[in-house]
Amino acid sequence: MTLTVERAGLDLADPKAYADDRRFHESLALLRRESPVHWVDAPGYTPFWAITKNEDVLEIERNHQIFLNAPRPLLGTAEFDELNRQRAEQGIALRTLIHMDDPDHRVIRAIGADWFRPRAMRALEPRIKELAKRYVDRMVDLGGECDFAQEVAVHFPLYVILSLLGLPESDFGRMLKLTQELFGGDDDEFQRGATNEEKLQVLLDFFAYFQELTEARRKNPTDDLASAIANARVDGEPLNDFDTASYYVIVATAGHDTTSATISGGLRALIEHPDQLGRLRDKPELMPFAVDEMIRWVTPVKEFMRTANRDYELRGVTIREGDAVLLSYPSANRDEDVFDDPFRFDVGRDPNKHLAFGFGVHYCLGAALARMEIRAFFEELLPRLRSIEIAGTPEGIATTFVGGLKRLPIRYSIA
Q1: DSSP code for 146
Q2: pTM for the complete prediction?
Q3: What is the pLDDT of residues 115-125, one digit of tens each?
Q4: Rounded Cα distance, 323 and 307, in Å
Q5: Which of 48, 58, 250, 384 could form a disulfide with 324 if both were Cys (CB 3.0 to 4.6 A apart)?
Q6: For the ranges 85-94, 219-228, 338-347, which has the lowest average pLDDT?
Q7: CA distances in angstroms from 197 to 79, 83, 242, listed in the order given
Q8: Considering Cα of 404, then 409, then 412, then 414, what sign does the dihedral take?
């Protein structure tokens, strides 16, 4: 079947398309060439403009006073959007940093900012290296064959972020399940249920857990990020229960799935490009460049939505006040006008101006932490690696928001 611009646009609202790299990037490349500001009217969704060029994504990110996160920060079905609107009116909707605009965004972001600055990262680095070694040792214990995505990659960054929050290891399994249900709501394997009510129940379970945590940290503050969030004050008042729980949710989930997806996708890229694996092993000083190339290659955050608060012209197309735009980060990170040979995996790529962490006021709070985790893992793995190969069929998760591989069967020898 011939790929048309219309069909390519519809792929942006199809969770299964995101799990098929070849199909998805063919669609994005066609949109970049022929319709970079493209109107998508997909069945079951409120229509939106798809923005696929790197330069245009940057322009919209820069104009954050025109293109707002509220009321539709993520792509969801029209039914899900309406349910979220109703929940917001009832005061029981998720309200994280990605749901907010200034001035709320600036004030709420500042609550956790110090925990992601260089000084805090240096203090956390020994724990990250310890966990990286634990999970490479885990690969040895697994006997030379495993599903890397499920048995290693999902656990390492979860332990890091929940250690930062100060949660007990006995709760990590529960957090993993909730996180996979939250981001895997469109995936037949990970979703809790098919209805929007069942999907929203995952959020309510998150809220219930973190409400207990808030009460505990307010009674007995400790030296961790959970206490900083629980005891934060804005205009002299503590955050309400849902804003507090929402802050925990964004830290616990965004700090986990994005990094695990990059580690799995990065390892797959190294296996499938053995020349680059050899190059990185021979020149470990390339690791910082390799980490950013893995992040660009995988681009675990697939999209954010913005809504125009006035008419705006982009590439000769008028985006009307009230129209939603979808910022396609995988497309921006394969833009031929920005990246030299963008479909080549290059561990020494420099410059590498990818947009996987966003740009401007909404730039990812945990970018430095994610880079440190990925670097620590591969710095531990590669010197010990004797051989590695794909041992089955890798599988991607069906999602329109955050994701990567859910299966990466590998065979290996590690010292």
Answers
A1: E
A2: 0.94
A3: 999 999 999 99
A4: 6
A5: 48
A6: 85-94
A7: 11, 9, 18
A8: positive
